[in-house]
Sequence to fold (814 residues):
Amino acid sequence: MKRKQRRLIFVSLGLAAIGLAAALILLAFDENLVFFFSPTDLRSHQFTADQRLRIGGLVEENSIVRDGLNIRFNITDLSNKVAVTFSGVPPDLFEEGQGVVAEGHMRDGSFEALEILAKHDENYMPREVADALKESGQWQGDEGQDEKGSK
Amino acid sequence: MIAEIGHFALILSLVLATVQGTLPLVGAARRDTAWMALSRPAVAGQFIFVSLSFACLMYAYVVSDFSVANVAQNSHSAKPLLYKFTAVWGNHEGSMLLWVWILAFYGMAIASFGGNLPPALRARVLAIQGLLGVGFILFLLATSNPFLRLDPVPINGRDLNPLLQDPGLAFHPPLLYFGYVGLSVAFSFAVAALIEGKVDPAWARWVRPWSLASWSALTAGIVLGSWWAYYELGWGGFWFWDPVENASFMPWLMATALLHSAIVAEKRGALKSWTVLLAILGFSLSLMGTFLVRSGMLTSVHSFAADPERGVYILGFLVLVVGGSLSLYAWRAPTMRATGRFRPISREGALVVNNLLLVTGCAAVFIGTLYPLVLDALSGEKVSVGPPFFEASFVWIMVPLFILMAAGPLMAWKRSDIPGVSQRLILAFGAAATAAILLVALRGGPWGAILGLTIAAWLVGGVVAEFTERIRLARVPLGESLRRASALPRSAWGMTLAHTGIAILITGAVGATNWQTEHVQVMNIGEKVQVAGYGFDFVSLKESDGPNYTRLGAEFRVTRDGEEIAMLYPEKRKYWVQTMDTTEAAIRTTWIEDLYIAIGDPAVGGGIAVRIYHNPLVPWIWIGAAVMVAGGLISLSDRRHRIGVPRRSRRKLQPATPMENEA
Fold:
């Protein structure tokens, strides 16, 4: 086999691999991207019941109601809020007044969370939540995050 | 005083790294041996001073010197001693110092083991290491100094993030860093080779052991992290496709590809420039992982503090290193000509496909990890890419790789034939068919699990076929087979083990993903629940105090057919200083399956939320990874990787098969 032929085979193999990967990635993207919304964003959007999305903000003070495994609470960006229901065990740092991100579906104006995302640090504010608060003009500055950096 | 010594030692090491990174490089260009020889004492000095600096920080932690800001922010006098040590790298500044120390350690190792490297190559490699050292030490001193003082001195510290107060912190970050930073050695060799414009089999032979060491450490580090998340987070899962996990997984994929292509470069003199490219990309991905994790762009337990200054510095450094090395590559690589030719159906061909698949898989992970960041930067739209994406793309790219993995080692170098190889794979076909039939008959699904386990069986069959052929089992008397086995090069044993480990790991991952049973409910004391054929009795719930936390401990009796088989004690801890809760899952393992209990918050009307998982085959993930690491280490101990060691006199009995001395 000539050098050129061989190279051709390898190049086409490579292209095939890349093409296959691109197809897989695009297909997977199409089905598995989850968009993020703040409670304010939610107002201007319509969602179907099977559309998976993430919402984030703060857990509103005095809004958590527990009933066995079922939890109801409100997520707020301090301008707007949305009622959330969840069944299961929330992560360790799920508390009133803390930042939270929930993934699930909108159903009849309230949010059915399939998953509540954990955070790992008392000071940590999910970036999406921080941005959502900034957008709604309720951001209190970067305290939590900056304290830890050495000045 | 101690902190100032540490700070000063760090500055001295910066000076020495600068010397190491510049003069020998000039010396190598001018063929000045005296200047080239400077690199070794400079490396030794840098290592000593960084070690001193590290020891100073450690001392400050152990004696709880809260006048040091870093200690005050991440430690507490009531913390157990082990965590005073490990807290040194449980924060941004300390972990970067650990990174720098490991970088200096590798420099020292190259200087010590590289006695037989050509002087110019050694000088260049060490110089590149020195320049990397300059970048990181400067980063520490300018943006992340761990030795800054606090005034007034607080009475006590703010304690370490409770999630990190775990023995896992003693091993996971250091091993991961040994892996990440180990790739810098291959990188330095690659850049040095580009400067010299020469990649010969000797070069590949020097690169292989370093990539192997770094690959082994990276494997161990990633899996320890996964194990840690498994027992600490209480979610019952072992891999979440979290961006931070991906950041460590991408360099691993590259290191794996590099290991395999370096074999071709060494044995056959082909794939030279490709190997150089992989070495560059592997380390670039390590750097990018560090950047992503440390810049605060990804928020997780790993991003200690978001500070834009640091992000900008690392980004600049990343651009310089990646851009510089890739430009050098574009300029110099065309001069490297392959000498070894091969046909598409050959061992080399199989390794090329291996590389293509690994790199493509890495690209899929890369896109899934970075897409949300890029989209946010470009349009402000926020998306997340979750596990389903990676399962639908990466996992499918790995399927052909695993299938090929059984066949590759059976192929001859240069040219091979498909009929011959398939004939030798009869055992693999048999194993796969048996596994598929048994699985359909016994479990009946889901089909993804059947496919996954069939592939694992196929792979084991292939590994066994290759090994038995090597020792000519059943073709020659058993005694001679055993003699052949003991005469096999360690790198051959290493490959057999590493490939077996992958098969075991696949089995574990497939079983855990497909057959996990989860049961969540509120339970009261005295209540009993059945999960996956096991009974769980909730016996008691008590509060007690640990060293720096209050513990809510539950007691469960696990029964099978009415007989007690274990007591499990899951806990929920409330740490006093950071007022944060952690979950300590209780796990009972039989090495085939895990029973896993985690408790949540007490419910309003009494009782407590309990999560019980039945996780079949999860332990195989850890076993498989351990076997892989063992394979890496055994291969690393191969005499042929230690150049300059006189070869053993050839034994009379050399396997006569085409895959003779290969791994």
About this structure: Strands of chain A lie at 33-37, 53-59, 65-67, 70-76, 81-87, 99-107, 110-117.
